[in-house]
């Protein structure tokens, strides 16, 4: 018999015997003489009356007999029937585990060791070297004054130019801020409006843009490169033949850009197991980043929904209607992927890696500090109220003739500081040392 069932059976038998005894006495002494016909019931009638009144006791006795029978089954037979109940009791009484069980897809993780590479453009050392050379070659601009590296400084900077908006040939000023080229290898969408779906597709865009490098045609690019006697051998080493084409230029540039990866930030060390890599304030900022909903768009190890790794949410509406006029500034002028007549723009979600080094911020570079960028995003995207900004709980959009109320959480100055501190932890150690020089 199962040891846990013995006390239950003994108590059950005693209860059943007591109930039968009490019922028997009740029928014999009280109920039998009061028959409706005025007579006294015989022995059979008393038993019938007792059974009719004691159906509940009879049912209990039957269940007790079944339980007693099962209790004498072999352990391997009875265990599956009682184990689930025993486990429930143990789980209910036990204290909660000190740590949650590990997940197969953790929310916080570092960049993959292998950079995503298309099958039609496998990398090799010669192609990478060719791409690096092309990236720094001013032959790719119309007047020979600019190279890709002129705006995307990968020698001394953080892969951008630090300007409000890009400056092209002849001193022309563009309308959009230069995004960093670091970790672009992990992005599924390139440019602020996300119009390019790969590095290969993106590579030739600035070369032909009249406000950037302004080259008249790709044929002219091919002619210039072919006229340099050192380029045909370089293309032969990279691709197996000396033919120079725009497609091969794009592939070589993309291969070089896939080498521009930074996975040496304090955040990366923290998620790899170094619990001292982030300060308490940075850890609190990390929690706020998750709790407030920042990670809904800036998701995955590259902190971008437009990434090749992690959840996919590549585009977002910039809710400028929730901002005050002074905050909004010119943020709503350019609509990105949105319709020109729309009140708010639609943009690719940028990566936040190295964001502390890539000011100014937003598509038009109109926000100078990371602190202010965090405040704007909290109000615009999360509907949160930020203390100390001097606005009320309500917001008014003249463009949409809409009145709204901040419905999200209220961020304190400390919350903003901790969020900024966490974003600073996404900075590459290598780039941070370079910036300090």
The percent range for strand residues is: under 5%
- Topology-level CATH name of the largest domain: Cytochrome Bc1 Complex, Chain D, domain 2
Number of domains: 3
CATH class of the largest domain: Mainly Alpha
Biggest sheet strand line-up: 1-2
What's the architecture of the largest domain in CATH terms? Orthogonal Bundle
Give the N-to-C terminal Cα separation.
79 Å
Counted by DSSP, the helix tally is 18
Largest sheet: 2 strands, antiparallel
**What order do the helices and strands follow?**
HHHHHHHHHHHHHHEHEHEEEEHH
Mean pLDDT: 85
Q: Uncertain regions: pLDDT < 50 for 5+ in a row?
A: 34-38, 78-105
CATH homologous superfamily heading of the largest domain: Cytochrome c-like domain
């Amino acid at each position: 018999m199962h040891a846990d069932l013995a006390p239950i059976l003994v108590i059950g038998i005693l209860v059943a015997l007591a109930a039968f005894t009490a019922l028997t006495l009740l029928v014999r002494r009280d109920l039998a003489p009061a028959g409706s016909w005025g007579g006294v019931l015989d022995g059979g009638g008393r038993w019938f009356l007792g059974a009719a009144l004691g159906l509940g006791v009879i049912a209990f006795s039957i269940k007790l007999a079944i339980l007693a029978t099962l209790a004498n089954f072999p352990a391997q037979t009875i265990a599956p029937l009682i184990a689930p109940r025993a486990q429930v009791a143990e789980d209910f009484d036990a204290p909660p585990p000190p740590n949650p069980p590990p997940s197969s897809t953790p929310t916080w993780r570092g960049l993959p060791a292998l950079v995503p590479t298309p099958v039609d453009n496998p990398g090799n050392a010669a192609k990478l070297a060719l791409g690096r050379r092309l990236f720094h070659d001013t032959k790719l601009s119309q007047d020979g004054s600019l190279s890709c590296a002129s705006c995307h400084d990968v020698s001394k900077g953080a892969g951008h130019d630090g300007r409000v908006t890009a400056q092209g040939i002849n001193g022309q000023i563009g309308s959009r801020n230069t995004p960093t080229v670091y970790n672009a290898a992990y992005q599924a969408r390139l440019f602020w409006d996300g119009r390019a779906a790969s590095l290969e597709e993106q590579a030739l865009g600035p070369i032909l843009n009249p406000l950037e490098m302004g080259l008249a045609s790709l044929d002219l690019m091919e002619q210039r490169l072919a006229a340099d006697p050192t380029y045909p051998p370089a293309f032969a080493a990279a691709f197996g033949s000396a033919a120079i084409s725009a497609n091969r230029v794009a592939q070589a540039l993309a291969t070089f850009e896939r080498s521009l990866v930074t996975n040496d930030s304090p955040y990366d060390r923290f998620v790899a197991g170094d619990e001292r890599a982030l300060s308490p304030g940075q850890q609190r900022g990390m929690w706020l980043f998750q709790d407030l909903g920042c990670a809904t768009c800036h998701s995955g190890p590259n902190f971008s929904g437009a990434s090749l790794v992690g959840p996919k949410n590549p585009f977002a509406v910039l809710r400028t209607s929730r901002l005050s006029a002074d905050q909004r500034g010119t943020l709503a002028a350019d609509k990105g992927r949105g319709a020109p007549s729309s009140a708010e723009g639609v943009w690719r979600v940028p990566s936040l890696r190295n964001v502390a080094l890539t000011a100014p911020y937003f598509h038009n570079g109109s926000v100078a500090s990371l602190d202010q960028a965090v405040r704007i995003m909290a109000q615009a995207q999360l509907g949160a109220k930020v203390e100390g900004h001097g606005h009320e709980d309500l917001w008014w959009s003249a463009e949409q003739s809409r009145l709204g109320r901040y419905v999200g959480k209220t961020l304190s100055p400390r919350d903003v500081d901790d969020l900024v501190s966490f974003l600073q932890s996404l900075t590459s150690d290598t780039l941070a040392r370079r910036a300090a020089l």
